[in-house]
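ok so i was messing around last nite and threw this chain in just to see what happens. nothing serious, just curious
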Amino acid sequence: MKLEGLTVLDLSLFLPGPAATQIMADHGARIIKVENPRAPEPTRSADAFPWQQGDETVMFRNTQRGKESIALDLKTDAGKRALLALAKTVDVVVEAFRPGVAARLGIDYATLSKNNPGLVYCSISAFGQTGPWCNRPAHDTATVAAAGILDVTRSPEGSAGPAIIGVPIADMLASNLALSGILMALLRRQTTGQGDFVDISMFESVLAASPNIMGPVFGGNQAPERLKERTHGGNAMLNVYETADAQYLALGGGEHKFVTALFEGLGKPEFIQAVTGTAGEGHWEAIAFLRDTFRSRSRSEWESWFEGRDICWSPVVSLKEAWNTEHVWQRGMRFQDEQGNDHIGTAVRFLQEPAQIDTYLPPIGAETAQILAELDLTDADRKAILEPLK
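result:
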């Protein structure tokens, strides 16, 4: 597999770091997850993540598979020495401490790279390692709010306030950029022999995902007027419409061929020219027509009407509906292990050496003794680490 022979030390918790390292595990990397035996990975807890399957939380199962777990208390001398010894042997370290914590623990890039100059060290944080906001605490929703995205995430109909985005967009964007940064640094290491420090900010990951909505800000020095912007509700062909049975459908493409197929199909070709043009006031009459029209039939009736028409659209389905579609199962984005537990598949696909997913889930510290045996440690340190785990 692509990443076979690569060893990653994962010090991160929750989602951004573990999601990135799980992708690496799916593609052959050895992932050693460091857990504090007194406060292990929070997603193991059914109190915090109550939905379980097969005696594990769904969240833990879909962020930690295929990894090894070593239990180390980094506030003890033996635990600290074990981590330093381990860091000499790995290719990558991923951590998601608040800025400054790794340095206080003596496990920051500057320290670890002295004995491992080829080390690629990735830090994931809310606002980055520098700058006036670096010490602000924040999780996904707060960083999305700070990036201006919650303000533009509103219903295209009515005057509802900001809506919480249905997926942890900052976490997952940061996770994917962390993976990209790590792989780029590893590629550079092949020619230079030198590792690198990768600084990933959840906030900046969201900012970087915004080029298609920055016109008003960069071009006009103003916040977007929602119903005049193409992706915020001002385009008839990029909009959400209610149906007669209180369901919804989404139009998702404004190319001329889609506009023509829709309005000719609905017997309103006079809207084609306006809707093909710039979003905003010129679309409003067509939007009002579509709102009234789509409310005249049920979602299933509209699904039948759209069948075979060259129009970019989809019903707005529930999460359950989406994950039960034939397409999701056939593409392997949902699969079951031998015990019948569900897993999210990998979205990174290769023709050569595709992923070989290992659904093993490590108990807390399950591989501690094995990993310690590989390290240059004293018997006293090994005993000090292992004794409390018995």
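not much to say yet. The mean pLDDT is 96.
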